[in-house]
Protein backbone atom coordinates (compact mmCIF):
# COMPACT_ATOMS: atom_id res chain seq x y z
CA UNK A 1 0.00 0.00 0.00
CA UNK A 2 1.35 3.40 -0.98
CA UNK A 3 0.51 6.38 1.18
CA UNK A 4 1.34 10.05 1.44
CA UNK A 5 2.21 11.93 4.61
CA UNK A 6 -0.41 14.60 5.15
CA UNK A 7 -0.20 17.80 7.15
CA UNK A 8 -3.15 18.02 9.54
CA UNK A 9 -4.57 20.99 11.45
CA UNK A 10 -7.72 21.77 13.40
CA UNK A 11 -10.80 22.74 11.41
CA UNK A 12 -10.66 26.48 10.79
CA UNK A 13 -13.56 28.92 10.79
CA UNK A 14 -12.84 29.48 7.10
CA UNK A 15 -11.95 26.76 4.63
CA UNK A 16 -8.21 26.39 4.04
CA UNK A 17 -6.91 25.44 0.61
CA UNK A 18 -4.27 22.75 0.44
CA UNK A 19 -0.80 24.24 0.30
CA UNK A 20 1.37 23.57 -2.72
CA UNK A 21 4.69 24.29 -1.02
CA UNK A 22 4.85 22.88 2.53
CA UNK A 23 8.41 24.11 3.08
CA UNK A 24 7.22 27.70 2.62
CA UNK A 25 3.88 27.23 4.39
CA UNK A 26 5.56 25.73 7.46
CA UNK A 27 8.23 28.42 7.77
CA UNK A 28 8.57 29.09 11.49
CA UNK A 29 5.57 26.86 12.31
CA UNK A 30 5.48 24.12 14.97
CA UNK A 31 4.66 20.54 13.99
CA UNK A 32 4.20 17.85 16.65
CA UNK A 33 5.21 14.25 15.90
CA UNK A 34 6.49 11.14 17.63
CA UNK A 35 10.27 11.16 16.96
CA UNK A 36 10.27 7.39 16.35
CA UNK A 37 8.14 7.67 13.21
CA UNK A 38 8.82 8.30 9.55
CA UNK A 39 7.08 11.65 9.97
CA UNK A 40 10.01 12.93 12.00
CA UNK A 41 12.54 11.96 9.33
CA UNK A 42 10.40 13.59 6.66
CA UNK A 43 10.25 16.83 8.63
CA UNK A 44 14.02 16.80 9.04
CA UNK A 45 14.27 16.50 5.24
CA UNK A 46 11.84 19.38 4.85
CA UNK A 47 13.95 21.51 7.19
CA UNK A 48 16.98 20.82 5.01
CA UNK A 49 15.04 22.07 1.99
CA UNK A 50 14.06 25.17 3.94
CA UNK A 51 17.72 25.79 4.70
CA UNK A 52 18.63 25.44 1.02
CA UNK A 53 15.89 27.92 0.09
CA UNK A 54 16.87 30.31 2.90
CA UNK A 55 13.43 29.83 4.48
CA UNK A 56 12.82 30.13 8.22
CA UNK A 57 12.89 26.51 9.47
CA UNK A 58 9.90 24.81 11.04
CA UNK A 59 10.01 23.74 14.68
CA UNK A 60 9.53 20.07 15.57
CA UNK A 61 7.73 19.33 18.84
CA UNK A 62 8.71 15.77 19.77
CA UNK A 63 6.33 13.66 21.88
CA UNK A 64 7.94 10.28 22.42
CA UNK A 65 5.38 7.49 22.76
CA UNK A 66 2.44 9.54 21.50
CA UNK A 67 0.06 7.72 19.16
CA UNK A 68 -1.13 9.18 15.88
CA UNK A 69 -4.70 9.35 17.18
CA UNK A 70 -3.68 11.19 20.36
CA UNK A 71 -1.72 13.74 18.31
CA UNK A 72 -4.70 14.32 16.02
CA UNK A 73 -6.81 14.88 19.15
CA UNK A 74 -4.26 17.36 20.51
CA UNK A 75 -4.16 19.28 17.22
CA UNK A 76 -7.96 19.29 16.97
CA UNK A 77 -8.15 20.82 20.47
CA UNK A 78 -5.64 23.51 19.56
CA UNK A 79 -2.81 22.26 21.79
CA UNK A 80 -0.53 22.12 18.74
CA UNK A 81 -1.04 23.75 15.34
CA UNK A 82 0.00 20.86 13.09
CA UNK A 83 0.90 17.19 12.98
CA UNK A 84 1.70 14.73 10.18
CA UNK A 85 -0.43 11.64 9.49
CA UNK A 86 -0.27 8.91 6.85
CA UNK A 87 -3.08 9.23 4.33
CA UNK A 88 -4.59 5.83 5.14
CA UNK A 89 -4.84 6.78 8.83
CA UNK A 90 -6.43 10.09 7.84
CA UNK A 91 -9.01 8.08 5.89
CA UNK A 92 -9.82 5.94 8.94
CA UNK A 93 -10.08 8.89 11.32
CA UNK A 94 -12.23 10.82 8.84
CA UNK A 95 -14.89 8.11 8.90
CA UNK A 96 -16.05 9.11 12.38
CA UNK A 97 -14.82 12.63 13.09
CA UNK A 98 -14.70 15.99 11.36
CA UNK A 99 -12.73 18.16 13.78
CA UNK A 100 -9.49 18.15 11.78
CA UNK A 101 -8.56 18.92 8.19
CA UNK A 102 -5.74 18.16 5.76
CA UNK A 103 -3.94 21.33 4.69
CA UNK A 104 -1.17 19.80 2.61
CA UNK A 105 1.07 16.85 1.84
CA UNK A 106 4.76 16.28 2.33
CA UNK A 107 6.65 15.44 -0.88
CA UNK A 108 6.68 11.89 -2.20
CA UNK A 109 4.87 8.64 -1.52
CA UNK A 110 5.72 5.98 1.04
CA UNK A 111 5.06 2.26 1.07
CA UNK A 112 3.55 0.59 4.10
CA UNK A 113 5.43 -2.60 4.93
CA UNK A 114 5.92 -5.18 7.64
CA UNK A 115 9.42 -5.50 9.03
CA UNK A 116 10.95 -8.60 10.61
CA UNK A 117 14.22 -9.26 12.38
CA UNK A 118 17.22 -10.23 10.33
CA UNK A 119 17.36 -14.00 10.06
CA UNK A 120 13.61 -14.58 10.40
CA UNK A 121 13.34 -15.76 6.82
CA UNK A 122 10.48 -18.19 7.50
CA UNK A 123 8.29 -15.46 8.97
CA UNK A 124 9.21 -13.13 6.11
CA UNK A 125 8.27 -15.77 3.53
CA UNK A 126 4.93 -16.45 5.23
CA UNK A 127 4.08 -12.75 5.33
CA UNK A 128 4.96 -12.29 1.68
CA UNK A 129 2.89 -15.35 0.75
CA UNK A 130 -0.09 -13.96 2.68
CA UNK A 131 0.17 -10.59 0.93
CA UNK A 132 0.54 -12.22 -2.48
CA UNK A 133 -2.50 -14.42 -1.88
CA UNK A 134 -4.84 -11.71 -0.59
CA UNK A 135 -3.69 -8.61 -2.45
CA UNK A 136 -6.83 -7.12 -4.05
CA UNK A 137 -8.85 -10.33 -3.68
CA UNK A 138 -12.32 -10.57 -2.13
CA UNK A 139 -10.96 -10.74 1.42
CA UNK A 140 -8.84 -7.65 0.82
CA UNK A 141 -11.67 -5.62 -0.70
CA UNK A 142 -14.19 -6.55 2.00
CA UNK A 143 -11.72 -5.69 4.76
CA UNK A 144 -10.61 -2.47 3.07
CA UNK A 145 -14.18 -1.27 2.56
CA UNK A 146 -15.05 -2.19 6.14
CA UNK A 147 -12.47 0.18 7.58
CA UNK A 148 -12.08 2.84 4.91
CA UNK A 149 -15.29 3.17 2.92
CA UNK A 150 -18.39 2.45 4.97
CA UNK A 151 -18.65 5.82 6.67
CA UNK A 152 -22.34 5.58 7.63
CA UNK A 153 -21.91 2.17 9.23
CA UNK A 154 -18.88 3.32 11.20
CA UNK A 155 -20.54 6.52 12.36
CA UNK A 156 -23.66 4.58 13.43
CA UNK A 157 -21.58 2.02 15.36
CA UNK A 158 -19.54 4.78 16.96
CA UNK A 159 -22.66 6.61 18.04
CA UNK A 160 -24.16 3.48 19.60
CA UNK A 161 -20.95 2.75 21.47
CA UNK A 162 -20.62 6.28 22.79
CA UNK A 163 -24.25 6.55 23.83
CA UNK A 164 -23.53 3.66 26.19
CA UNK A 165 -20.75 5.72 27.79
CA UNK A 166 -22.63 8.85 28.82
CA UNK A 167 -20.27 9.00 31.81
CA UNK A 168 -16.55 8.40 31.85
CA UNK A 169 -16.79 6.54 35.15
CA UNK A 170 -19.40 5.63 37.77
CA UNK A 171 -17.89 8.33 39.98
CA UNK A 172 -18.06 11.38 37.69
CA UNK A 173 -20.45 13.35 39.97
CA UNK A 174 -18.10 12.96 42.94
CA UNK A 175 -15.06 13.99 40.91
CA UNK A 176 -16.92 17.01 39.57
CA UNK A 177 -17.96 17.98 43.11
CA UNK A 178 -14.40 18.06 44.42
CA UNK A 179 -12.78 19.68 41.38
CA UNK A 180 -15.30 22.42 40.63
CA UNK A 181 -13.63 24.83 43.07
CA UNK A 182 -10.14 24.09 41.69
CA UNK A 183 -8.41 24.74 38.37
CA UNK A 184 -8.21 20.99 37.75
CA UNK A 185 -10.03 19.41 34.81
CA UNK A 186 -12.27 16.71 36.27
CA UNK A 187 -11.63 14.50 33.25
CA UNK A 188 -7.91 14.46 34.02
CA UNK A 189 -8.72 13.28 37.54
CA UNK A 190 -10.94 10.52 36.12
CA UNK A 191 -8.11 9.47 33.79
CA UNK A 192 -5.77 9.34 36.78
CA UNK A 193 -8.32 7.44 38.86
CA UNK A 194 -8.52 4.73 36.20
CA UNK A 195 -4.72 4.53 36.15
CA UNK A 196 -4.65 4.12 39.92
CA UNK A 197 -7.49 1.67 40.54
CA UNK A 198 -9.36 0.88 37.31
CA UNK A 199 -12.39 2.42 39.09
CA UNK A 200 -12.30 -0.23 41.81
CA UNK A 201 -13.04 1.45 45.18
CA UNK A 202 -11.76 -1.65 47.02
CA UNK A 203 -8.34 -1.56 45.34
CA UNK A 204 -5.31 -1.94 47.61
CA UNK A 205 -1.68 -1.85 46.49
CA UNK A 206 1.18 -3.93 47.88
CA UNK A 207 2.44 -0.72 49.51
CA UNK A 208 -0.87 -0.23 51.33
CA UNK A 209 -2.41 2.52 49.17
CA UNK A 210 -6.20 2.33 49.26
CA UNK A 211 -9.29 3.18 47.28
CA UNK A 212 -10.05 4.80 43.96
CA UNK A 213 -7.14 7.24 44.08
CA UNK A 214 -4.75 4.86 45.90
CA UNK A 215 -3.97 7.20 48.77
CA UNK A 216 -1.81 5.91 51.64
CA UNK A 217 -3.60 5.83 55.02
CA UNK A 218 -0.97 8.12 56.60
CA UNK A 219 -1.54 10.65 53.80
CA UNK A 220 -5.28 10.40 54.40
CA UNK A 221 -4.73 11.06 58.11
CA UNK A 222 -2.63 14.14 57.32
CA UNK A 223 -5.50 15.36 55.15
CA UNK A 224 -8.03 14.57 57.88
CA UNK A 225 -9.75 11.87 55.81
CA UNK A 226 -10.41 8.27 56.90
CA UNK A 227 -11.99 5.20 55.29
CA UNK A 228 -10.31 5.66 51.91
CA UNK A 229 -12.29 2.73 50.49
CA UNK A 230 -15.38 4.92 50.56
CA UNK A 231 -15.58 6.46 47.04
CA UNK A 232 -16.39 9.95 48.29
CA UNK A 233 -13.56 9.91 50.82
CA UNK A 234 -11.09 8.33 48.42
CA UNK A 235 -11.72 10.88 45.69
CA UNK A 236 -11.71 13.79 48.14
CA UNK A 237 -8.36 12.60 49.49
CA UNK A 238 -6.88 12.23 46.01
CA UNK A 239 -8.02 15.67 44.86
CA UNK A 240 -6.82 17.23 48.13
CA UNK A 241 -3.43 15.57 47.74
CA UNK A 242 -3.19 16.89 44.17
CA UNK A 243 -3.84 20.36 45.59
CA UNK A 244 -1.12 19.88 48.20
CA UNK A 245 1.35 18.83 45.51
CA UNK A 246 0.34 21.83 43.42
CA UNK A 247 1.70 24.07 46.18
CA UNK A 248 5.07 22.33 46.07
CA UNK A 249 5.83 23.63 42.58
CA UNK A 250 6.60 27.19 41.42
CA UNK A 251 3.37 29.08 40.88
CA UNK A 252 4.73 30.62 37.68
CA UNK A 253 4.79 27.22 36.00
CA UNK A 254 2.19 27.20 33.20
CA UNK A 255 -0.83 25.15 34.26
CA UNK A 256 -0.62 22.93 31.19
CA UNK A 257 2.89 21.91 32.27
CA UNK A 258 2.40 21.91 36.04
CA UNK A 259 -0.26 19.21 35.85
CA UNK A 260 2.31 16.76 34.47
CA UNK A 261 4.77 17.53 37.27
CA UNK A 262 1.96 17.06 39.79
CA UNK A 263 1.04 13.68 38.29
CA UNK A 264 4.67 12.55 38.36
CA UNK A 265 4.94 13.65 42.00
CA UNK A 266 1.72 11.80 42.87
CA UNK A 267 3.33 8.63 41.52
CA UNK A 268 6.98 8.97 42.52
CA UNK A 269 7.06 11.66 45.19
CA UNK A 270 7.69 15.38 45.02
CA UNK A 271 11.35 15.01 46.00
CA UNK A 272 12.22 12.83 43.02
CA UNK A 273 10.49 15.25 40.65
CA UNK A 274 12.49 18.09 42.18
CA UNK A 275 15.68 16.06 41.60
CA UNK A 276 14.64 15.48 37.99
CA UNK A 277 14.06 19.20 37.43
CA UNK A 278 17.48 20.02 38.87
CA UNK A 279 19.13 17.36 36.73
CA UNK A 280 17.30 18.60 33.63
CA UNK A 281 18.68 22.07 34.21
CA UNK A 282 22.19 20.63 34.70
CA UNK A 283 21.83 18.80 31.38
CA UNK A 284 20.72 22.05 29.71
CA UNK A 285 17.18 20.76 29.27
CA UNK A 286 14.13 22.84 30.15
CA UNK A 287 13.21 22.25 33.82
CA UNK A 288 9.75 23.71 33.18
CA UNK A 289 8.83 21.25 30.39
CA UNK A 290 7.92 17.69 31.33
CA UNK A 291 7.76 15.86 27.99
CA UNK A 292 11.12 15.48 26.30
CA UNK A 293 12.93 17.35 29.07
CA UNK A 294 12.31 16.59 32.75
CA UNK A 295 10.97 13.12 31.90
CA UNK A 296 14.32 12.36 30.25
CA UNK A 297 16.11 13.41 33.44
CA UNK A 298 13.70 11.29 35.48
CA UNK A 299 14.73 8.22 33.49
CA UNK A 300 18.39 8.91 34.28
CA UNK A 301 17.72 8.91 38.03
CA UNK A 302 17.63 5.12 37.96
CA UNK A 303 21.33 5.11 37.02
CA UNK A 304 23.99 5.28 39.79
CA UNK A 305 26.03 8.06 38.18
CA UNK A 306 22.98 10.31 38.45
CA UNK A 307 20.97 9.25 41.50
CA UNK A 308 24.05 9.20 43.76
CA UNK A 309 24.38 12.94 43.19
CA UNK A 310 20.70 13.67 43.80
CA UNK A 311 19.12 14.64 47.11
CA UNK A 312 16.38 12.01 47.16
CA UNK A 313 18.34 9.19 45.54
CA UNK A 314 17.22 6.31 43.35
CA UNK A 315 13.85 6.23 41.63
CA UNK A 316 12.45 3.81 39.05
CA UNK A 317 12.09 6.61 36.56
CA UNK A 318 10.26 4.56 33.97
CA UNK A 319 7.23 4.27 36.27
CA UNK A 320 6.37 7.98 36.60
CA UNK A 321 7.25 8.57 32.94
CA UNK A 322 4.82 5.89 31.79
CA UNK A 323 2.28 6.96 34.41
CA UNK A 324 2.13 10.53 33.13
CA UNK A 325 2.05 9.50 29.47
CA UNK A 326 -0.75 6.98 29.92
CA UNK A 327 -2.89 9.42 31.89
CA UNK A 328 -2.25 12.15 29.31
CA UNK A 329 -3.26 9.84 26.45
CA UNK A 330 -6.36 8.62 28.30
CA UNK A 331 -7.36 12.21 29.05
CA UNK A 332 -7.06 13.12 25.37
CA UNK A 333 -9.20 10.08 24.59
CA UNK A 334 -11.86 11.26 27.05
CA UNK A 335 -11.96 14.62 25.31
CA UNK A 336 -12.53 12.74 22.06
CA UNK A 337 -15.40 10.75 23.58
CA UNK A 338 -17.21 13.94 24.56
CA UNK A 339 -16.63 15.39 21.12
CA UNK A 340 -18.07 12.29 19.42
CA UNK A 341 -21.09 12.39 21.73
CA UNK A 342 -21.71 15.96 20.65
CA UNK A 343 -21.56 14.88 16.99
CA UNK A 344 -24.02 12.05 17.67
CA UNK A 345 -26.52 14.39 19.34
CA UNK A 346 -26.37 16.73 16.35
CA UNK A 347 -26.95 13.89 13.91
TrEMBL record:
Belongs to the transglycosylase Slt family. CDD domains: MLTF-like (cd13403). It holds the Pfam family SLT. Transmembrane segments: none annotated. It comes from Microbulbifer okhotskensis. Residues 175-283 form the Transglycosylase SLT domain. It comes from the Bacteria. This is Transglycosylase SLT domain-containing protein.
